[in-house]
Amino acid sequence: AIDISSLRGQSGVITIDPGFKNTGSTKSAITFLDGEKGILRYRGYPIEQLADKSTFLEVAYLLIYGELPQKSEFETFKSQVTNHTLVHEDIKKLLDGFPSTAHPMGVLSSLVTSLTAFYPQSLDPNRSWEEVNLSIIRILAKMPTFAAWSYKNQMGHPVVYPDNKLDYCGNFLKMMFGLPTEEYEVDPVVSRALDKLLILHADHEQNCSASTVRIVGSSQASLYASISAGINALWGPLHGGANTAVIEMLEGIKADGGDTKKWMAKAKDKNDPFRLMGFGHRVYKNFDPRARIIKKAADDVLEKLGVNDPVLDIAKGLEQEALEDQYFVDRKLYPNVDFYSGIIYRALGIPAEMFTVMFALGRLPGWIAQWKEMRENKEPIGRPRQVYVGENERDYVDLAKR
Ligand code: ACO
């Protein structure tokens, strides 16, 4: 709480809302979210229908351009995205400069920023719509290449070039798991599961990373610079980094003997910094509709791939206990999208350090749509105010006299 008597030299009324819990930063026509009812719609279409019937590239088109594409529009879009997957060969030199200890998220954001150097025309805020659209296509096309290469760097393996005969997810899987010298066959079960996960992550209105993309873009920074900032915002464990934290937590509980009650007690203990990762959400106070879809997808994928993952049982146990626990009920803490996503990623063979990169891959169309909407609406530069609570004016004292 701020003591009102401490407001010095301020004029006008300033609203203090830490974490912007109740502050709308924009009007948006992209994603509708009702946290009480657990509703999520992209451009009016329920997430359940999109996850069931659509594809990630079609959802990307919908988010960015506002409508589901006609067949010919989609063919053009798909062929454009497919044909821009290759990256400038010099980007490999940048990649080679990273030690294999580099976190893939840091590599990803750096490679995305580097596009400003390879396409300097993207820096011009007054460039034509055609050129802006080319930036959109380029980033959509190159992101899977960067994502897969950030993993190859970590493994110390040679990179695999994009294969334009494959679809978006198949191409990514080949670059991620293939070897330059070997044939790689995409498993349709894996590819479809990945596609669904990307759809579920594609946008989520004014979250931390989307707001970052908008605020950076509001200074008329390029699309690439704005997306790179979004990737960094997503990295933290309270946002996209939660998916890695969840699997580490579940592994930890398993290694500790699987006593979920003990960990529930830790999560409730206010003197213990431990939080149940993958639980709670700033906006969903009933359930996260994406978590429901993912939980079912986790069951399906594990069954189809014949994987028996004991951490899935721990996850289900925690969810059940939380449902019956007064602390979690009172605070409306339910599993969020990331609670089950790590289990599927793991079943697909994706290592934990890459989970947040996978999230970034999925969230990309949302960031693009948010950036584009902000620019089309000619929104002013984002510049929050503050309430100053520091010292009053005082005179400088020479170092010798201090
Ligand atoms: N475990 C235990 N207690 C929790 C948890 C949790 N996961 N989440 C919230 N709480 C408690 C808080 O301690 C607080 O209790 P209090 O009222 O007694 O002080 C109360 O619930 C409200 O929590 P806030 O942190 O104020 O809620 P906020 O809306 O600011 O935070 C957040 C939301 C960051 C998601 C939080 O629930 C959290 O840290 N969850 C774990 C991390 C996580 O899963 N993040 C992913 C979010 S989804 C995404 O980015 C895709």
UniProtKB/TrEMBL annotation:
GO terms for molecular function: citrate synthase activity. It holds the Pfam family Citrate_synt. PROSITE patterns: CITRATE_SYNTHASE. It catalyses: oxaloacetate + acetyl-CoA + H2O = citrate + CoA + H(+). Keywords: Transferase, Tricarboxylic acid cycle. The active site is at 281, 338. The keyword Metal-binding does not apply. It comes from the Bacteria. InterPro entries: Citrate_synth-like_lrg_a-sub, Citrate_synth-like_sm_a-sub, Citrate_synthase, Citrate_synthase_AS, Citrate_synthase_bac-typ, Citrate_synthase_sf, Citrate_synthase_typ-I. GO terms for cellular component: cytoplasm. The keyword Cytoplasm does not apply. GO terms for biological process: tricarboxylic acid cycle. Pathway: Carbohydrate metabolism; tricarboxylic acid cycle; isocitrate from oxaloacetate: step 1/2. Belongs to the citrate synthase family. PANTHER family: CITRATE SYNTHASE. This is Citrate synthase.
